[in-house]
Amino acid sequence: MSTAAVLLRPTQAENKLLDKQKYILEAAGLIDTKAGKVTKAQILETYGKHIEAKLVNLKTGDWVDGVNADTFDQRKASRDVKTSFVPENDIASVKRVAEDAVVYLVRDEQGKLTSVILPVHGYGLWSTMYAFLALDADLNTVQSLVYYEQGETPGLGGEVQNAQWKAKWHGKKLFDEQGNIAISVTKNPAVASSEYGVDALSGATLTSNGVQHSLTFWLGKEGFASFIEKARNGGLS
Question: Has residue 206 been placed in a domain?
């Protein structure tokens, strides 16, 4: 490997982290990427002021101490048999799941918790699609669903990153009154107009199914279910 490639590694890692932080801030509604270019200084300042990354054990729902959650490589951990598991019901085709996952706590100027951001991913038609799901402090009401990495068909499945489709998620509910996962990505207009429904992408059935399966998996018992239950019972305080 060339010396130049070795020297570039820290810069590439820094840029990758900065890009991720930008999408987290977008999911939190703290920056508007459509308004123009956001500077590195703006990202770092806003992230440092409002975002706290924490590691959670998916099986127990407890916080994991002693690890820098901002630099924790969840994808790498999911590939290591020592730090991951094979899900029993792999509806999202994730193959392996890291035992620990990063969650992002968003606070306002007074330090009050305003939202919780969960990273979710799952397979669409052509690719694994990665997103940040931002929820109100009730861990039920959706603030946003921001896809930041996907390889779906441009103009069809790639519309998961379309601003108009993203806007449809705001205010939707994930769980019904009995605590069951109720969110539905659907072609049924009656369901889509309900508090639990979002319009499926036109001409992209398998991508839409991938979004649904991603949420069903990550909100379920092999995803963030234990964390969500504990958080609702005061685990975020």
Answer: yes
- Give the structural domain span for 107: 50-235
Q: Answer yes or no: are the C-beta atoms of 181 and 228 closer than 8 Å.
A: no
Nearest to 189 by CA among 181, 200, 178, 179: 200
Q: What is the pLDDT of residues 95-154, one digit of tens each?
A: 999 999 999 999 999 999 999 999 999 999 999 999 999 999 999 999 999 999 999 999
Look at residue 36 and tell me if it is in a domain. Answer: no
pTM score of the predicted model: 0.93
Note whether residue 105 is domain-resident.
Answer: yes
Terminal-to-terminal C-alpha distance of the chain:
48
- Who's near 99: CB < 8 A, 6+ residues apart? 57, 58, 59, 77, 83, 84, 85
Please tell me the distance from the alpha carbon of residue 155 to that of residue 177, in angstroms, as a whole number.
Answer: 36
- What's the structural domain count of the chain? 1
